[in-house]
Every structure is written in C-alpha cells, then in structure tokens.
Design brief:
The complex is a heterodimer of chains A (about 260) and B (about 60). Chain A has 9 helices and 7 strands; from the N terminus they run H-H-E-H-E-H-E-E-H-E-H-H-E-H-H-E. Chain A is α/β, with parallel strands linked by helices and about 260 residues long. Chain B starts with 8 loop residues before the first helix and ends with a strand. Chain B has a single domain, classed as N-terminal domain of TfIIb (Single Sheet), CATH 2.20.25.10. Classes of the chains: A alpha/beta (about 260), B mainly beta (about 60). Chains A and B meet through helix 4 and strand 3 of A and helix 1 and strand 4 of B.
Chain lengths: ~260, ~60
C-alpha cells in the first residue's frame, strides 16, 4: 500500500457530512455530469444487473435504477448515507465488498480525494465480475486551474508565500496507466471539458462547499485565508463581469478480467 | 425496547470485512457485523452498516 498521505480523509468525510444537507443547489450539476457519464453504458450495448455506486451522492443511483439495475451505493460520509444517498458507509481506500459481486461499478467524481488510488482501483477490479464494467469520472489537472493560479499569485503578493488551496488532480495519461496497472482490460481514459459560467465569483466557492469539494489536502492552510486573499484572487479571475471555471474531467472505463 | 432496524439481506450477500476481505457474521441482537479475522465489530445504525475501520469496536482477544 502507498505510504503517501496527501489528503486528510477525516476532512474529506467532514466536507461530505457538511454537504449532505446542502446538495440541493449543486444537484443539477451533479445530475447532469452523472447523466453524461452513464450515457457510456448505453454505448456498450450490454445489459447490467447489479451495480455498485461509489460516492455518487444521489446522482448516480436513480439513473442506474431507471435502467433496471439493482444498486448498492456507498459514501464515506455517514450523514450523506443517512440523508438517503447510499446504503453503506464505506471508505474508498478499504472497500467492504466481496470478489466478483458486481457487473458494473460506477465512481462519479468520488476518487479524487483518495490517497491510495492504485490500491482503491485494485479493490474495485476485484469486486467486479469478469467482463463487468468499471466507469469513473475524475477531475483532471486543468480543473480549477484559474483559481489555483489566482490564489497562489494573490497569496504570494500578500504574504510572500503560498499554501496549496486547490487539490492536486492527476493528469489524463496517469489515469489510463493506473487502470492498466490495476489489472483492468481495455482501459480507456478520455477527457471531457465543461465550462461553468459564474456571474458572482463567491458563488463558485459556495458551490464547491455545497458539493463537499473544498480543499482537503494535508498541507492545506488550517487557518482561514485572509479576506483580502480571496477578494484579490477572485477579482483577478473575472473577465467582462463573468467568471468562467473549467472542469477538466477524465472519463475512465475498464473491464473486469 | 424496539427491534434494531434490520439490514437489507441483499447487502449481507456482498459485504465483507474492509480490512481482511474475509467473511462477516451478522449479530442481529447487537446490530453489528463481526469480522473475526480482524477482531472488529462494525456497527449498523438505522439499518446502515458503517464499514469504517475507525468506527469499529475492537473485539476482546
């Protein structure tokens, strides 16, 4: 198992606990992205019977159920599950599922806060039936790139230093390699780019919080950023009164073997 | 005393110990899923299995 600890898993769980009651406002975005991801199922021409939904936050399970698939859904956050978005509280780094239990496993925007991603992928492959499908979406390095750069610049200007305030996302090429190393057959990683248009820069931060997606890196600054920092960074990102934020998303597919 | 919320039998078919991937024994009276190999008992709250190692009760040796 990897010894590298980048993410504070207790913080990830706390962020998702907090998001459990606030998902409503970001629900349309989560649902739309889930729907784009699950379109891939229809491209396969296969019929799936039993699926595992890892961290789908209520966006994935209904779409699978509508296709007549029996679903078991998990979340790291007990409150997220208690709110009806899951059946089991489970840690993606220690999945509690037997071998070859599912013919479909979907991880919709839920693996990017995992420290041991190779280990999680191996466990996912193990729970997949031979010829079952693993389908995942994950933000890539370009995601929130503008925010990352603006925050670093503003913090350097104000304090002379900078702490990581945006998660270190993987690159597309890494994703396909990880799938292959985890033993998936026919691993594919594709890029989908979605731009979000904000009229109010602060709404971006509110949406990230409501989705449970604020920074959980171990090296994050524990104190709140100075107010001038956010104001300066966000102001520098606004062009013609609008703020466009890019989600660079990897769509990963791999088959059981 | 009310009966604890039972766990969905379909879940029991697929759940294993997250640490050892070994079998779990369902202790209905105490609402726990017991992994003897790991020496851990995972709580079931309102019918929801909490399969987190940090939340599990250590069994007496």
């Amino acid at each position: 198992m990897s010894e590298m600890v980048i993410f504070d898993r207790a913080a990830v769980a706390a962020h998702r606990d907090r998001a459990a009651a606030r998902l409503g406002r970001v629900r349309p975005v989560l649902d739309d992205l889930a729907s784009r991801l699950l379109d891939r199922l229809d491209d396969t021409g296969r019929v799936f019977a039993r699926a595992l939904d890892i961290g789908g936050r209520g966006a994935v399970t209904p779409l699978l159920a509508a296709r007549g698939i029996a679903v078991v859904a998990t979340d790291l956050s007990p409150r997220m599950v208690a709110a009806g978005h899951g059946d089991v509280v489970a840690d993606e780094e220690f999945l509690p599922f037997g071998a070859a239990c599912f013919d479909l496993i979907v991880a919709h925007l839920s693996l990017h806060w995992v420290n041991d991603l190779p280990g999680a992928l191996v466990q996912i492959r193990r729970s997949l039936k031979p010829e079952g499908l693993f389908l995942a979406s994950m933000p890539l390095l370009g995601t929130l790139g503008g925010l990352r750069a603006a925050l670093i610049e503003a913090e350097a200007a104000l304090t002379g230093g900078a702490a990581p305030r945006v998660s270190p996302f993987p690159e597309l090429a890494d994703c396909a390699g990880l799938l292959q190393r985890a033993g998936f057959a026919l691993p594919i990683a594709e890029r989908e780019t979605i731009d979000f248009d904000y009229a109010d820069p602060l709404a971006l931060l509110r949406d990230l919080r409501d989705a449970g997606e604020t920074n959980a890196t171990v090296a994050r600054a524990r104190r709140m950023p100075p107010r001038e920092l956010l104001a300066m960074a966000l102001a520098s990102m606004v062009m013609d009164g609008r703020l466009v934020v890019r989600l660079d998303m990897a769509v990963l597919t791999g088959w059981g073997s | 005393m009310t009966d604890p919320a039972p766990i969905d039998p379909k879940l029991l078919e697929v759940l294993v110990c997250p640490l050892t991937k070994g079998p779990l024994v369902y202790d209905r009276a105490n609402s726990e899923l017991i992994s003897e190999r790991a020496g851990l008992a995972f709580p079931i709250r309102d019918g929801i299995p909490i399969m987190l190692i940090d939340e599990a009760r250590k069994l007496d040796a």
